[in-house]
Fold NAD-dependent epimerase/dehydratase family protein.
Amino acid sequence: MKKRPVVALTGASGYIGSHLLDKIAPYADIVALSRNGNRFENSEHVEWRSCDLFSLSDAERALEGADIAVYLVHSMVPSAKLTQGRFEDMDAILADNFAQAASKQGVKRIIFLSGTIPDEQKGLSRHLHSRLEVEHILGAYGVPVTTLRSGLIVGPEGSSFPVLAKLLKRVPYLCLPRWMNTNTQPIALQDVLSAMDKSIQTANHPAGTFDLGGPEVMTYKQMVNQLSEVMGKNLPIHQVPWIPMWAVKFAVRCLTHAPKQLVYPLIESLRHHMVARETSTDFMGTIPFKEAAKQALKNGGVYQPSRASSSPKPNDVRSVQRLPIPEGCNTEEVALEYVKWLARTLNPWIRTTVDERWQCEIGLLFLKKPLLEMTYSEERSTEDRALYYITGGLLTNEKLNKRGRFEFRKIPEKQQIIAAIHDYMPSIPWPLYLFTQAQVHLVIMWLFRRHLENVSFSSFKSPQITPIVKEKE
């Protein structure tokens, strides 16, 4: 009997992941990954695992035993009650954790569903630039990566198509700016699933990038016209010489009630020609746009805002900033410099101490107990990653703070690092925190970035910034 491959499937409870799970279940053993995997019941060939991909240790446990890992992850919608930072930087963390975990667990291949990348890669939108960066990060640790680059996916859920359908449903006519007079190649959900299914089933499928596209290339105006006909509206569509992008973003957000974190990056990508290259006939769709749109609308297909959970969200914080690395320095040195720079910059009001094991305390001179205590994790740190657990202090809710951490990690093949706070639970009242400590942190990280941009190699290594060591008691 042929051995069933073990496929780790991220986003298994989501839009594309849930459909792909049903499609591959007849021949594969599936490790279904979700942030809330404990809510689902296992079956004969499906094992659910809870996994937060912002945690490297979670990712390593999640991919244990997998032959193939399918990556269906993006972070445009915030995952914490307060999220500070750009989605591109959060995408980089998620991909880096996933790729490192896949390498450690001996995964044979990663399959990544990305977006169509134009031939001209200068001036890419933030969304497409992030997708391209994720491709590079996933392949940085030696695991072969098959990237399937898809255009707009026509299906009953997701983002682009349901938002467009909601927009057309609510307006009596539509004005399109000329910068949207670009080509697109939408593809039906079933064609995307078929391409991913073929890639999983082909054991010796080559690594590389393959474009997915439907059978028709059309302008966005033509696509809107066809969708309008399918919806039975036949909207008048006027093309105007110039409408600023900010106005389009604002109008779509107001009319569809979709969050700006979702709408804005997608609209920024509309100025690009999104046409598939002829990479493989196995990956070209056959379902026409109108047929795919009819099926999608029959099964819902119009964007609906997410319902708020009845249970209160924890007061958790995720704050992510991208920083330069001074030439000749590594990530651990930048992390230690951050603590030393804090002591110099906030002196004389703030005292910062670091012992011989890099355990760190930050506090006010006139208070005995520190504001923050951070414990350096030697076991989980490397030359390219410095990890501190937030273990106490007056500004930490020690009762609820179980996974709070502060990390510095290098982005593969770039002279940049990401500084990130994850799962931090502040002790002060939430409204007060939002307007005080949260804003102070952003200012401090901005100043530290300026410091790294201007510091020279010699001053970075100079004696005055060597660790301040606590006296042993």
